[in-house]
Amino acid sequence: MEVTATVSDRSVDNGTEMTVSCTTSHNWKTCAWLYDGKKCQYEYAYHEGRNEWTYDKILCKSNFGDHTFVTPQGYHLGNSNKLCKITFKSVTYEGQYICEFQRCNQEETD
User: What is the average per-residue pLDDT within 45-70?
Assistant: First the structure.
C-alpha cells in the first residue's frame, strides 16, 4: 500500500517543522517514507529479550533529514500498529512525501 502527501510552498514554509502521517487497515511490519530520492524505513518487531514491541530504524539514508518517528498510542501492546507518523525538524523539500507499508506476516508490500 502506498500513500502520497504533497507539500506545496503554500502549506509549509522552508525550514519549519512538519509532521506527516499515513494509516492502513492492517498492522504493518515495515513503514517507509520517501521523498526527493531519499528513503527512511522503520520496522515494528517484538524483542523477546526485552519482552516488548519496538520500532527500529532499519534503513535511513544519511541525507534523509533530521526527523523523529512518532510512536502511536498503544503500540507496545502489539495489536495497534496501523499508523506511521514522522516529524521533520526542518522542511527543505517541496514535493511529494510517499509512505509505503509492508503488512505483518507478508513478504510483499501491500
Answer: 88
